[in-house]
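Hi W., the manganese (II) ion complex you wanted:
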Amino acid sequence: MSKGYHSVHVLLLSDCFPIPNLFTCKELVVRVGNAWLYEPNLNTLRQKVNLPVGSCELAVPLKSKDHYSSNARREAYATILHSAHVYVCGAITAAQSIRMSGSTRDLVILVDDTISEYHRGGLEAAGWKLHTIERIRNPKAERDAYNEWNYSKFRLWQLTDYDKIIFIDADLLILRNIDILFEMPEITAIGNNATLFNSGVMVIEPSNCTFQLLMDHINEIVSYNGGDQGYLNEVFTWWHRIPKHMNFLKHFWEGDEEEKKEMKIKLFGADPPVLYVIHYLGLKPWLCFRDYDCNWNVNILQEFASDVAHRRWWKVHDAMPENLHKYCLLRSKQKAALEWDRMQAEKGNYTDGHWKIQIKDSRLQACFEEFCFWESMLWHWGETNWTDNATATLAPPVPIISGLLPSL
Ligand SMILES: [Mn+2]
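Structure:
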């Protein structure tokens, strides 16, 4: 390839659109039918194709490359809450973890109008800059399904005040500074399985025309898992693989040998940290009592259970300013759900024995809703015709912490 002193044109003949992060829509000169003519920036294209694709050179570079200019003010960490206020506490704690890692980059959070003023206040106090977005419906999702709105993630590409974004899920902790990823191109991520990347941590480059491209194909591209991860993997078939430590999944595979399990537990607990990022799969730490990882009490979720990783999350939580802790309180319904799972584990006499542990978490007693008598919710829990009308008609939560409110 030319040294980059002369401009070069690249002509591609293809019925599909060319890989959009190698040949960007900004660099498209003209398209006629299946002929695409680009005038690429040779320096950035060279940097990308020089990145290792094999398994021998996965490490991140020790030193920044001099030809790759970066401007910290145009770089940010970003996350998104798609209609999920239960992730507010996670996002607040994730922000804390980024600051504890020593990063000073902007923190940007995308929220839609289902996130209340109260919760917005907490996110801002934690350091997130709020961007209100119009959510994007996944046309292939069922109504009210978990993945109904997750195509809203495409709006990250509209954050054109920034050249580079490290996207992070709201359910992870940054234990060591990962700013070095700002030197990596779109898409940089860890491998999920085979040739696919995990979208929990990924580097992207905002661009309105890339956003448009993602939107243009929303009805035709089929996502293998029904989520944004599957969709993005269809579009960005070229991506740069980084070590698993930069998005380490809290997950013990069924096939993991005992040694491997022990190694993972050691990694979760290492202090000073060895892992850069822990990604909390399964039930989230803030939706459990702090006493133990509540994934233990659900048979199919036990593969996600780790008390060591759980404790680590709470340590970061506890290091946050006191005024942020109230965003991590448990709703009555969640307390009932946790107790229900615990009772099932007791009935099943689960051998890990976590269900025997007495809960000392003060959040058990703290109530910020009008309805605090969560035990009554258990009377009919699990019955097929059970509805939670008793709580649904109550007023929205009032942000008052009190363990003294009388039970109804
Ligand atoms: Mn996640």
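Confidence is low (pLDDT under 50) at residues 389-408.

W.
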